[in-house]
Amino acid sequence: MSKHELFLCEYFGTMRRKNAMQFNFDRQVSKQDPYEMDIDGFKGEYLVAKYLNLMPDFSINQKKNPADLKTAGGKTIDVKSTRNKEGDVYVTEYHRKNPCDFYILIVLDDDGGDIVGWVDKDELFQFATLQGGSHPSYRYDRKRLNPISQF
């Protein structure tokens, strides 16, 4: 990513976090700093949108839809970003009730990221395992993901 793209991601991620703190109950399960998590989240969305030739969602308003991106055909995509090179796809219980059509995993670093693969909602919830705790979430093994070239 260029320094300008990195700046945009930091700006929109930070603004989304500031807005979310005012209006939303925090459903994030990571121990990562919330600002860093939102910056990484936007960075992942931006990189996947760029790869798929889609328009990123530049809004900073309260999101009422779990989708990060929409395809030209109206299908919804939730981008799951992680810095763990061996990380799996994790989705909260909220997504069980309000699923996106597709989930795409991207592994980030300071300069960009690598798209690992994708899964559709039916396969995700058929094979994901429920992880307990204070914020239950579903874990889908990254080894089961479809290559992004087949999206």
How much strand content do the residues show? 15-25%
Task: Please write the CATH class name.
Answer: Alpha Beta
Span between termini = 22 Å
Largest sheet: 4 strands, mixed
User: Overall pLDDT, averaged?
Assistant: 88
CATH 2nd-level architecture: 3-Layer(aba) Sandwich
Low-confidence stretches: none
Listing every helix as H and every strand as E from the N terminus to the C terminus, the arrangement reads HHEEEHEEHEE
- The CATH topology comes to ECO RV Endonuclease, Chain A
Which descriptor suits the 3D outline?
Answer: globular
**What structural class do helix, strand and pairing data support?**
alpha+beta
Total helical elements: 4
Number of strands: 7
Tally of distinct domains: 1
Helical percent range? Answer: 25-40%
From the alpha-carbon coordinates, what is the Rg to the nearest angstrom? 14 Å
Enumerate the strands of the largest sheet in spatial order, edge to edge or round the barrel.
Answer: 1-2-4-5
Structural overview:
- The chain has 151 residues and is an alpha+beta fold.
- The chain has a single domain, classed as ECO RV Endonuclease, Chain A (3-Layer(aba) Sandwich), CATH 3.40.600.
- Helices cover 34% and strands 25% of the residues.
- A 4-stranded mixed sheet has the order 1-2-4-5. It has a 3-stranded antiparallel sheet with strand order 3-7-6.
- The radius of gyration is 14 Å and the shape is globular.
